[in-house]
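Example record

The entry below shows one chain as it appears in the dataset: sequence first, then structure tokens.
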Amino acid sequence: TGKWGVFGTNNMNKVTLEDCNLNRFDIHCYGKDITIKDCTFNNMYNQFSSIYGTIRYENCYFKEHTPYLNETSYNSFTPFTLVMKNCVWEVSSYGIPEALCVMGGLTGEYNERLELNKRAYPNVYIDGLKIVAPSKFSDVYVFWNNEGVADTRPVENISEVMVESLVINEGCGLKLWNNEISTSNGIIFSVK
């Protein structure tokens, strides 16, 4: 029933999880190329910080669970790509905002480490996503910034959010983000 989680610590590269039932998976500082297949996640979030490469979910089920939560205690927003293929996301019935990526605050605080100083949001590629939402939901988000935006520096890296084969409740929409942010380049946002 997903009552336990996997806590990766630091510097984890080429991680693979297969056929797991968890309540969370974390990498707290520096990770690269994470593949998660045929897993079920329950009632929490997967928390990452300083990720590079690709986080890839294939045939995963998220029950009232956030697929990507940016760990903000390191004040790092690194460039990576998030891929979801043939996944199901059952959003919460609690009435709180639901997002595939909860990014934490862009506080205006500079990270003293040069490689972490710029702010980046991931490119997102989704091919086959079923969103199951309670009838009272009107919108779900790709990105949610839960602490507001106080940083006026442009966000780097993000250039595409591509969603194909989306199945979602009638009357429920998928929006890009809840707070406006500035980006260093234009963003292609496509939902089919």
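Notes for this example: The mean pLDDT is 85. The radius of gyration is 16 Å.
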